[in-house]
Amino acid sequence: MSTLPRLGALIALAGLAACAPSPVSLPAAPVAAGSSISVQTVPVPLNPEAPGQTAIGGFTYAGGVQLSSTQTSRFHGLSDLSVSADGKITAISDEGDLIEGRLVFEDGRLTGLADVTLRPLSGLDGQPLPNKEMSDAEGLAILASGDRLVSFERQSRIWLYPADGGPPRAVPAPEADFPLNGGLEALAADPERGPDAYVTGGEETGQTWLCRLAAPCVAGSTVDKAPEFGLVAMRRLPGDQTAYLLRAWDPLRGNRIVLSVTGASGELARLEMTKPLTVDNFEGVDFVPRTQGGYRVYILSDDNFSASQRTLLLAFDWTP
């Protein structure tokens, strides 16, 4: 969930609406999502003020799109994602929805999203989550078994959704007190430590934990970050490397993000985005190995159900 205070949201609405492309208008009232929805995509440049810019440091822009749907008022607030090697995408939302689809490419560049489904995450009783207090899903990790892990804010917890369907079950989560909007944003599978291992992190503190399905979470390192940045996503990479997605916002500079890849010797790569680049409230990241080496990196923004923000999916190619 966004860390924007109510006053900040009003300032953002006034200051950013004029420069942001107009999103597709929402239906007048909530619309129940069916098993399939159509999603409109609009290509976006890396830098609207310099369309020729094709890279940020070692990260080469590989296409990006603004996403919206007129068929449901729930295709918003996307907070984390997972992308498979064949281009299938899974995402979760702040309102407790599970979104799945297929990425579309032209000449290797990201150009669209197709075959999209949207359905509510269920609670332990198998029924849709009843309210915002329970449905604020923020982190997503898919284990080697195909089981999905989802971390939630407000009521901080991690649930496992079985790959073969059925209700979720609670799995170990850090025993810590989190602020209302500063909880378990970051979640990632940790296959080098075992098929049942995963890591998670607190947004405000940057504290991380290593967890296993059958063992309590153990405190790990604290992410080295500036105080105004929050830890919103992370991914574990081979060779004991970790990617951290950090996000900050203020009314003068707007959204700022930092994607930092670290290893035993320190920071290995860094991607920073702020205006005039195409930047928004990015909260999700995933790394997909490429056959020619390196990674295709995806970042996803949470529009907070706000007309002044956008749902953006951007792709970058990065070779360590």
Short synopsis of the structure:
This protein is 5% helix and 48% strand.
Topology readout:
Layout: H1 6-16, E1 40-43, E2 55-56, E3 59-68, E4 78-83, E5 88-93, E6 97-106, E7 109-120, H2 132-135, E8 137-142, E9 148-152, E10 157-161, E11 169-171, E12 184-189, E13 197-202, E14 207-212, E15 215-222, E16 230-237, E17 241-250, E18 254-263, E19 266-273, E20 282-289, E21 295-301, E22 311-318
Antiparallel strand pairs: 1-3, 2-3, 3-22, 4-5, 5-6, 6-7, 8-9, 9-10, 10-11, 12-13, 13-14, 14-15, 16-17, 17-18, 18-19, 20-21, 21-22
The overall pLDDT average reads 90
Question: Based on the structure, what is the oligomeric state of the protein chains?
Answer: single chain
Distance, first to last CA: 31 Å
- Which series of helices and strands comes N to C? HEEEEEEEHEEEEEEEEEEEEEEE
Strand content: over 45%
Biggest pleated-sheet summary: 6 strands, antiparallel
Question: What is Rg?
Answer: 18 Å
Q: Please tell me what the overall shape is.
A: globular
The SS-based structural class is: mainly beta
Give the helix tally. Answer: 2
Helix content: under 10%
Number of strands: 22
Residue runs with pLDDT of under 50 for 5 or more positions:
2-25
